[in-house]
Write a structure and sequence with these properties.
three-stranded antiparallel β-sheet
Amino acid sequence: MKNIRRRPLELYVHIPFCVRKCQYCDFLSGPSDEETKERYIEALLQEIHAAEHTEDYEIVSVFIGGGTPSALKAEAIASVMRTLQEKFFFCEDAEVTIEANPGTVDSEKLMTYRNAGINRLSLGLQSTDAEELKMLGRIHSYEEFLQSYQWAREAGFSNINIDLMFAIPGQCYEGWIENLRMVAALGPEHISAYSLIIEEGTPFSRKKLDLPDEDTEYRMYEDVAVVLKEYGYHQYEISNYAKAGCECRHNEGYWQRKDYLGLGLGAASLLGKERFSNTSDMQEYLKNSSAPEKIRKNRELLTREDEMAEFMFLGLRMTQGVSKKEFQEYFGTVIENIYGEVLKKYKKQGLLLEESGRIFLSREGVHVSNAVMADFLL
């Protein structure tokens, strides 16, 4: 029976392996040999077994990310799921997502995921164009993606996200809209559409790239919502679009500052007022994963001011923005007492709007969201 005293908790499980590093990727991931992968899964299972106070929580979502989790053998993922289910109390309708790339899954692997309790699939497509995929360093073709998508449906996945990327080198506006329409026509429940960001230390950062100009990128972004609305999607976050009721609960929980526990190399956590992350050193993780206190780094006890800032700059990522009532209930003061001048400034500029007790970014505000959100850091 459900214990109503349990607190909701989200889990993030990091799989730091991929077949090949993409040109734009700065995530904690990379290719590896089979022995290291096996040792890593053993260490991950040990960390899960060592998790403390699990009886206090009810798991509402799990996100298995990377890297490319589907680069592992299916049984490795199944063993992780079994161990999580043995260790934690899962609510009946928990959302369980795994990231997968075309070229790393087949029908049998996807069936194994479903049988293990995974009910949401996030497929990393990025582009439908062969040249764009090659330039990004992806390992798959669009045809392989279509096959993976079909296998996923046949395996019983009724909640699928597809990742797309725009403003990539050599891409024109018309090409991006064609990508978008081709994917939307397939009818996935969720589409994530991200603008390429050139991160320091990546191969892209060392190249001279033919990127779309600022006006073209602006138009690319603005028309995502317009085009996807035709296919029944609504925008609920800066880069995320879903059919009704198919918003990613795990990501919503992150933006709403719900408790989450990160498991695996470099995984971050927020429990109550404490933030911390696991070590990013593979050897240290493999050696000490059974003793959580030895792998947790960057421990930080959030102040009231920290929490207020996070409430604002995370909440403003969502199109519904932040609730003035919830702010007052949580912090015991009206939002204007803390951020009155900032709110007045951006409302006057037309970058923030207020309606029905909620404050949210305008369409213009979304394009300068980083600058707006930075002003809420006290």
